Amino acid sequence: MIRWQVGKVVQIVADDPSLQELYVSLEGRREKAWSFPEFIGPLSPGDTVLLNTTAVHLNLGTGGYHLVAQRLGRGGPGDADPGLRPLRGHIMKLRYTPYQLAVQSCEEQTSPYHETLKDAPPLGGMPVLIGELHSMLPVLAAGVQWLMRAGRLPSDLRLVYIMSDGGALPLALSRHVRTLQELGWLAGTVTYGHAFGGQLEAVNVYTALLAAKHVLKADVVVMMMGPGTVGTGTTWGFSGMEVADMIHATFSLDGRPCLIPRISFADARPRHQGISHHQLTLIAKAIHVPFIFVVPPYEGWQEQVIQRQLTQLAGSKARIERRAIIRRDELEDLLSLYPGEMTVMGRTVREDPAYFWGVLHGLTPLLH
């Protein structure tokens, strides 16, 4: 069931062509909302809107934001109703829902890239860094900058982000992507499946990878879902299971798949101590092709936990490496290259240094 409520826009907090951040008046309360102009056009103060308030009502992880579903009436001094806008492309995302939208996928016949992708060659060993949390993206991008500035990577290296549909579907919802684009740290973005809003749209993970390589000229790809994940406390019931498909696709296209470590000693849940139980499941049970998995050497009892977990992965397809490419005492300086503070599950690098240090070792294949 969907919980629908009617509110009125009282303030535009942030106004971007792909995402508006709003305050709305709802039952006498001032509450936060997001609106996607691509769906309903831009909003102005005074507009009456229909809101999907389901997630906030359930206290789920949307940051307390409602989602604008429709403008019911224009009450402000903004532009006239845009009415029907030209459609582009013939591939539908969010298919057979009331919000299905037409996009021009990079593969379709009317795309300028159709011929490039029609019989595109494989990836030729391109490194593809694959993770299950969106918070890994800015960490890796900052790591690339650090290594470039140290002369350990070429200064013209092109990093492309591919976003799957395993989390948030609109790429516009990612503040990290907007920041990285403003910094010039990303050479481009691709959204595939029912995710949308990338510089390029793709039908599936295979063509997303080929488009990153042959259209956006990527040297390295980072691939993971957008913000928001699902976990159920069961062995198989978490959205990060799609990582196995990403690794299989990369291997099939002659790329070099690397699984980004998810390691923490700050999470109170035992199943997330050391290497997350999600990754242990993926490696031991779900990934059936060779891939790189680099785990830096920890110390003391933390290293004992890691070693015990790695013995459980004997016989898996992981090519496990134990090495440090970045010193622990460089960690905070490296992450400070990124404006604003990075967090994972609300924790900063000071609260969970093991996570951030582990993620950075997903960059190891770039140094081979």
Pairing-aware structural class of the strands and helices?
alpha/beta
Number of domains: 2
- The CATH topology name of the largest domain reads Rossmann fold
Secondary-structure element series? EEEHEHEEEHEHEHEEHEHEEEHEHEHH
Care to count the β-strands? 17
Order the strands across the largest sheet as they lie in space.
11-10-9-12-8-13
Report Rg.
Answer: 21 Å
Binned, the helix content reads: 25-40%
**Which residues form runs of ≥5 with pLDDT under 50?**
none
C-alpha geometry: globular
CATH class membership of the largest domain: Alpha Beta
Specify the CATH architecture of the largest domain: 3-Layer(aba) Sandwich
- Average pLDDT taken over every residue: 92
Write a concise synopsis of the structure shown.
With 368 residues, the protein is of the alpha/beta class. 25% of the residues lie in helices and 23% in strands. The strands form five sheets. A six-stranded parallel beta sheet has the order 11-10-9-12-8-13, with helices on both faces. Strands 1-2-3-5-4 form a five-stranded mixed β-barrel. The protein has a two-stranded antiparallel ribbon with strand order 6-7.
Tell me what the structure shows.
This protein is an alpha/beta fold and 368 residues long. It has two domains: 4-73, Beta Barrel (OB fold (Dihydrolipoamide Acetyltransferase, E2P)); 121-367, 3-Layer(aba) Sandwich (Rossmann fold). The chain contains eleven helices and 17 strands. The chain has helices at residues 37-40, 54-57, 114-118, 136-149, 175-183, 205-214, 242-252, 277-286, 300-311, 331-335, 353-360; strands spanning 4-15, 20-26, 29-35, 48-52, 65-73, 91-93, 101-103, 127-130, 159-163, 188-192, 200-202, 220-224, 256-259, 263-264, 274-275, 291-294, 318-321. The strands form five sheets. It has a six-stranded parallel β-sheet with strand order 11-10-9-12-8-13, with helices on both faces. It has a five-stranded mixed beta barrel with strand order 1-2-3-5-4. A two-stranded antiparallel ribbon has the order 6-7. Helix 5 (175-183) links the parallel strand 9 and strand 10 (188-192). The model has no long low-confidence stretch (mean pLDDT 92).
